[in-house]
Write a structure and sequence with these properties.
The complex is a heterodimer of chains A (143) and B (127).
Chain A (H helix, E strand, L loop, with lengths): L3 H27 L15 E9 L3 H4 L6 E10 L5 E4 L11 E4 L4 H33 L5
Antiparallel strand pairs in A: 1-2, 3-4
Helix pairs in contact in A: 1-3
Chain B lengths: L5 H27 L9 E4 H10 L17 E4 L14 H33 L4
Antiparallel strand pairs in B: 1-2
Classes of the chains: A alpha+beta (143), B mainly alpha (127).
């Protein structure tokens, strides 16, 4: 049978993943106007791809059901079109006076960030509940 | 005179605790995947485990134990509405499941502790 330890591991994996999502959203927001990145192109917004993955445990090794954690499968660059703004005085403007700006949409990043923060909170609450159960179980051994 | 066997009582409480843990584990897995596209929420199914137990019963003492009825299988939660990304996890349902499992576990633990207290009382010759 699956144990509470694997449940905590699953919840902890979610905490780390949600933090990664918040980090990605923050770096997207921070670079909303970055017209130059390492490859000379404007910054492309980053997206975190998640994947469900069974927690590695004794149960998993025996082929029994175990808790399902979550993992960052990849961080991909959004290949959608850059935003364009007419600004002829900008040093990165093309010959028609348009500047290519990162494909970052601030409201979308904010929504992602709120969602990730809520999921983080929920998993933290879950860990609290599991810990309560472990403590309760340990009380059985008290004299 | 003693209508309920002590061992049966302890076993029943143990199963209740095991089931609560299984619910908790499934719910925490669901919660961890609240934003994973196409993830389907699961729940432990005790009915299936019971059926498996009924179909395969040890009829002789040298038969291998067909398995613990309280060992749960997991299955996808039926008629859960999927979001646009194919995910069927509902935050409030999972948190509610966890709260309920936690409560059930605490109840069984309290009863078991009371039972053990009596046993200890008997061992220590009512001291």
């Amino acid at each position: 049978m699956a144990t509470l330890g694997s449940a905590i591991t699953a919840a902890a994996s979610a905490l780390s993943v949600e933090r990664t999502r918040i980090e990605a959203a923050v770096s997207n927001l921070a670079n909303a106007e970055s017209t130059r990145s390492a490859n000379g192109q404007p910054y492309r917004r980053r997206d975190v791809v998640l994947r469900a993955e069974p927690v590695e445990s004794f149960d998993a090794a025996l082929g029994r059901s175990t808790a399902t954690g979550v993992k960052v499968a990849a961080i991909v660059e959004d290949q959608s079109e850059f935003r364009r703004r007419y600004e002829p005085s900008h040093p990165d403007a093309d010959k028609d006076g348009f500047v290519s700006l990162p494909n970052v949409d601030a409201p979308q990043e904010m929504v992602d960030m709120v969602g990730a923060a809520r999921a983080y909170q929920a998993n933290l609450a879950a860990i609290g509940l599991i810990r309560e159960m472990v403590q309760k179980a340990l009380e059985l051994g008290k004299g | 005179m003693n209508t309920i066997d002590d061992a049966a009582l302890v076993e029943a409480l143990r199963q209740q605790m095991t089931k609560s843990v299984a619910r908790q584990v499934a719910a925490s897995g669901n919660l961890a995947n609240v934003d994973t596209p196409n993830y389907k929420a699961v729940e432990p199914s005790f009915a299936d485990a019971l059926k498996g137990q009924l179909q395969m019963t040890a009829t002789r003492t040298n038969h291998i134990n067909p398995g613990d009825a309280s060992r749960p299988q997991v299955r996808e939660i039926k008629d859960a509405a999927a979001r646009r990304d194919g995910n069927t996890v509902e935050l409030d349902r999972e948190l509610l499941t966890m709260q309920r499992a936690s409560g059930d576990f605490a109840a069984a633990q309290t009863a078991l502790a009371a039972k053990f207290k009596l046993v200890r009382y008997a061992i220590s010759e009512s001291k």
